[in-house]
Amino acid sequence: MNTVLRLMICILFSWITNVNCQSKMVSIEGGSYIPLYGRDSMKVTIADFYMDVYPVTNKEFQQFLDDTPKWRRSNVKRLFADDNYLMSWSSDTALSENQSLKAPVTNVSWFVANDYCECQGKRLPTVDEWEYVAMANEELPDARTIKGYNEYILSWYEKPKTFNNEIGSTFKNYWGVYDLHGLVWEWTLDFNSVLVSGESRKDVDNDSNLFCGSAAIGATDLMNYAAFMRYAIRGSVKAKYTMKNLGFRCVKDNNQ
Amino acid sequence: MNFSKYVLFLFVACMSFASCNTKKTNKDQVAYHCPMECEGDKTYESEGSCPVCKMDLVLLENKPILANTDEISEESIFNLTSKWNTEEGKTIELKDLKGKPLVMVMIYTTCKAACPRLVADMRNISKQIPENNTDDLQYVLISIDPETDTPKRLKAFAIENQMDGEQWTFLQGSMSGVREFANVLAVKYKQISPIDFSHSNIISVFNAAGELVHQQEGLGVDNKETVQEIKNLLK
After folding, report:
1. What percent of chain B has pLDDT above 90?
2. What's the gap between Cα A101 and its chain centre?
3. Angle of helix B115-127 relative to helix B224-234, nearest 10 degrees?
């Protein structure tokens, strides 16, 4: 009898966590660190905040589309999303067969990601917040000097189609956050603060004609190639772009 | 043997003419480009991946230009619903600016380096537009520092820079409204100290329906093309 009861409780408990796990957040203790691209004082201070444990999934996004018709594929304005918006979906509100409900939603623009988070009473993380949490490995809040940490990220960048994997399939980091590396790239609130221009990849170094104050955009650690890739992507996308391997997650300020 | 060479030559020549032809007649055919713009403006005729960054090619959109200015097209900035304060203390939405071509730039008033030149560029452009057209278009300067640039401050800046006429509008938005609008313009900016911002220098021209028709990037660049685009809209 006792065993049955225990089993029941156990099943109930795991069911509850399963139901809630998608919007689960963990608290991130603020601090200061030196990002790859920072302000003029180099160090950036991060206040305490909450972050989604997982990226937003197809299932969650499907629910959002049910409630918000303006973001369905056939209704979305071209100002806010390009033609690849939710490309793999079979219809306005249905996934195609090869898409998993528990895979991160991708092919979404910044505008919709931003609105999604706002509708949940949350917001997108800033670049600094995202990078701050993402510099942690399983054990350390800042693992950037650990060789294995950088190797893991770079080897992921070479792996194809990880966006089809389910959330939680990578490692749980120091803060209890999953999938920052190894699943999909993620939108950030101020991705347009990265002043790496398309032009800078072609010829010039710091084009002071294009950017006011571009002297301040120099990188702090040019050996951090994985982070450089992320900043380069952020610098090259536009808010209406959608990509197969670009999803998002939300955060919340601590005072809420 | 010789004969077959000629045949081959003729065949190749025919083919190349034929392909020329299809290119011309199918000008509005779909085109794909690399989202990273690895190869600049290069386009491809079919889907695939970019040979440089290996990312999937994306469809290049054609901008629908509406003949009827009463409607708001999908590409129009009048789809944005954020609220803005003008230097005259009025609260408006962008669609309240509908009906005139718009010349827009993002600046902040405490800027010492680039913005004075951006502002000068705007003034330079306005000087090249015939005087009898001044009522037919609107110059809009949007602050990227809404915390500092209150309507009052923007008004003072307008007077100081001789931009206080009807055709000049200064806007103060919310932090998120500014971020969103910058994203529509693909303007990048970052606060690098309490009073300084890095930002891209882009002057954008919109038609009366709020559709982007031209962007000039850089400081003190030759604005001949921008002026011409504006004149075209005024015709």
Report:
1. 49
2. 18
3. 50
Backbone φ/ψ region at B108: left (φ over 0), alpha (ψ -120 to 50), beta: beta
Partners of B204 in beta bridges: B104, B215
Distance from C-alpha of B136 to C-alpha of B124, rounded to nearest angstrom:
17
Please check whether residue B230 touches A, CB under 8 A: no
Full strand arrangement of the beta sheet holding A211-212 = A211-212, B196-200, B189-193
Range scoring the smallest mean pLDDT among A184-188, B12-16, B49-53 = B12-16
- Give dist(CA A43, CA B33) in Å, integer: 38
On whether the CB atoms of residues A22 and A55 are closer than 8 A, the answer is no
- Tell the burial category of A178 from Cβ atoms under 10 Å away from its Cβ (0-12, 13-18, 19+): buried
What are A182's two structure tokens?
């190894």
Q: Which of B74, B76, B113 is facing A212, going by the closest CB pair?
A: B113
The chain-wide mean pLDDT, for chain A, equals: 84
How far apart are the C-alpha atoms of B180 and A229, rounded to whole Å?
A: 24
A interface residues, B as partner, C-beta within 8 Å? 39-41, 77-80, 82-84, 110-111, 114, 189-190, 192-195, 197-198, 201-202, 209-214, 216-217, 235-241, 243-244
Q: Give mean pLDDT, residues A80-97.
A: 95
Per-residue model confidence as pLDDT tens digits over B83-119: 999 999 999 999 999 999 999 999 999 877 677 788 8
Question: For the segment B52-61, what is each residue's pLDDT rounded down to a tens digit?
Answer: 777 777 777 5
- What percent helix, strand, coil does chain A show, rounded to 5? 35, 10, 55
What are B87's two structure tokens?
Answer: 């230097």
Q: pTM, whole model, 2 decimals?
A: 0.76
Place of tokens 């959109």: B61
Q: Are A13 and A21 in contact (CB under 8 A)?
A: no
Cβ neighbours of B196 in A, within 8 Å? 40, 213, 216
Q: Give chain B's largest Cα–Cα span.
A: 86
Contact: A192, B221; criterion CB under 8 Å: no
Query: What is the spatial distance between Cα B93 and Cα B96, in angstroms, rounded to a whole number?
Result: 6
Proportion of chain A above pLDDT 70, given as a percent: 78
Tokens, residue A120: 């949940």
DSSP assigned state of A200: H
Q: Do A192 and B196 touch (CB under 8 A)?
A: no
Give me chain B's average pLDDT, please: 81
| Predicted ipTM of the assembly | 0.77
Is the C-alpha dihedral spanning A63, A68, A74, A76 positive or negative? negative
Radius of gyration of chain B (CA): 23
For residue B41, is pLDDT > 50?
Answer: yes
